[in-house]
Amino acid sequence: MHMVKKDVMTDIYAENDHIADHVNGYLSEKGIYTVNVMGAPGAGKTTTLEQLIKRLGVRCYVVEGDIESDIDTERLRKEGINASQINTFGACHLDAPLLHNAVHAMTFDEQGILFVENVGNLVCPAEFSIGEDIKLLQVSTADGSDKPYKYPLAFEKANVILLSKTDLLPYLDFDEEFFMKGVRHLNPNVPVFKVCGKTGEGYDEAAKWLKERSGK
Amino acid sequence: MHEYPITLRIVEIANQQANEANGRVTGIHLVVGDESGFIGESIQMYFDVIAEGTPCEGASLSIERVRPKLQCTACGRYFERRPFSFSCPFCGGDGRPTKIGKEFYIKDVELEVD
């Protein structure tokens, strides 16, 4: 009997990332551009999907990630949006194997854009790649202007940020300068769109950006 | 909560090493950045349960924590961020995120072999 030390140096995310690459390849081959939608519970992620989808003018698909319930999926289906549900039953984020199973059960009859609404959470969704092309981060003015300082990773990894519920600004102490200062430190060039789900304000610009970026 | 599937993966990787060497695992050295989103104590809790009955049973888990560091865009030095600030404590310049603090890997395993 003797002891040996063996160097491993294995990234524990490696398997997830490997599956994420596979998911991205599968979707790209079908002409699908994938957007991972992240944000705190109640930031207005589902409203953003409704607002963007009606403006994009391309075929859109949605995967809803929630701990429980299919409320958001039902809501989108009523509007004729092709939506399917992943329930994580306790898990706080989606990972690549979950999305892998979901997309293989879906039919993509036309090329277009797939929105994957992650579990409402500003922490772990940022840590797991699911095979997306871009990460869209939504933060509402009601969430507070300190969020970039408290949840830096989500802001650092975002490819686009939507600041929602701008109609509430007169009633809140949201310090936009402080917010933007945090965003710029973490992610100097990320586009930030100010949007309002109630009036639809700002979504034309956000949809235009997304359409260009996706090449659809 | 999300430490459970990740701990399964850790045990799987270590067991594979043990099986290749035809031995058992006595220690696992993990490197976990504070911004990796994983909590050492939670991994430890799941580890003891998951390792039971495998070559990892009874192995000690040592977790090396890494504090996140920013790099100053003006003077290039690395520093730890203070709350609600990204400013460099040396020159007041702007700090940008780096990879330091996002680590999450198994550095090495200690095996007992015949």
Enumerate the spans of chain B where pLDDT stays under 50 for 5 or more consecutive residues: none
Q: What structural class is derived from the secondary structure elements of chain A? A: alpha/beta
Tally of DSSP β-strands of chain A? 8
Largest interface: A-B, 32 and 35 residues
Oligomer: heterodimer
| Sequence of secondary-structure elements of chain B | HEHEEEEE
Q: Percent helix among the residues of chain A?
A: 25-40%
Q: What does the overall shape of chain B look like?
A: elongated
CA-to-CA gap between the ends of chain A?
A: 63 Å
Major beta sheet, strand line-up of chain A: 4-3-5-2-6-7-8
Helical region count of chain B? 2
Overall shape of chain A: globular
Give the helix proportion of chain B (percent range).
25-40%
| Order of secondary-structure elements of chain A | EHEHEHEHEEHHEHEH
Q: Uncertain regions of chain A: pLDDT < 50 for 5+ in a row?
A: none
- Taking all Cα atoms into account, the compactness measure Rg of chain B is 18 Å
Tell me what portion of residues of chain B adopts beta-strand conformation.
25-35%
- End-to-end separation of chain B in angstroms reads 37 Å
